[in-house]
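Board work, copied verbatim: Peptidase M1 family protein
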Amino acid sequence: MPASDYNIALNIDPFTRIQQSYSSVNGVSVPIEFWALNENSDKDQAMIKNDLSHQISFFEELLGPYPWGDQIRFC
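↓ predict structure ↓
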């Protein structure tokens, strides 16, 4: 199946892998992982800790535990 040109994006730069975990309301540890530009890696780690974790916690209080959090397994 051919790919459309507008569906292709190249992101070429040195990236840093950011990994943290979030402790869900049901006690399951849910991994949070993404890639950030090297110059932003410190800011991104702080963003996960100070912003993203609070957002997930807020939605878990309203909607219940993070979906599929207990099904995540690392190979």
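The radius of gyration is 16 Å.
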